[in-house]
Specification:
WH-like_DNA-bd_sf; DNA-binding; 3 strands; 6 helices; Arc Repressor Mutant, subunit A; DNA binding; WH_DNA-bd_sf
């Protein structure tokens, strides 16, 4: 069976390349600023955010749950958690029900780190991303992201 590639047209190519460039530049800038102001990497911050989500009342997640939330490979989660554990931001606790499983818990130092970093990070996100958009553009962006996320969830 033969398949024909539907190449991107000029407008789609421009949009796709702009989206990739935006993501790369935005995350690089956010990472640089976080490290400069708080000593946290964007990966540290993502884990701290996951552990402080409202639906994580114990400030603790199984390693595999953390990986699923972040869409990270198991080895990346393990290495990042080890780096953060060495700095006292999180602690690993073995699971009593599953000897191979482990929980990642937010420590007091981790909570203090995200509490200190979040205001500046949110201010930078607002400055770089949202301040240049009007309300309709923000709503459109939300609809766009939801549509793509829904298509990804179908897999």
């Amino acid at each position: 069976m033969s398949t024909t590639t539907r190449w991107l047209d000029a407008e789609e190519t421009h949009a796709w390349r702009a989206w990739l460039d935006l993501n790369n530049r935005l995350f690089a800038r956010l990472n640089r600023e976080l490290q400069a102001t708080s000593g946290l990497s964007i990966s540290d911050y993502e884990i701290l955010v996951a552990l402080t989500d409202d639906d994580v009342p114990e400030r603790s997640l199984r390693m595999y749950e953390l990986g699923e939330r972040l869409q990270w490979e198991k080895s990346r989660v393990s290495k990042q958690v080890s780096r953060m554990e060495a700095r006292g931001l999180v602690a690993r606790r073995h699971c009593a029900d599953d000897r191979r499983g482990a929980f990642v818990e937010l420590t007091e130092a981790g909570q203090a780190a995200i509490d200190a970093a979040a205001p500046g990070h949110v201010a930078l996100v607002r400055e770089l991303f949202f301040d240049g958009l009007n309300g309709e553009q923000v709503r459109s962006l939300g609809r766009f992201a939801t549509t793509v996320l829904d298509r990804l969830a179908e897999d």
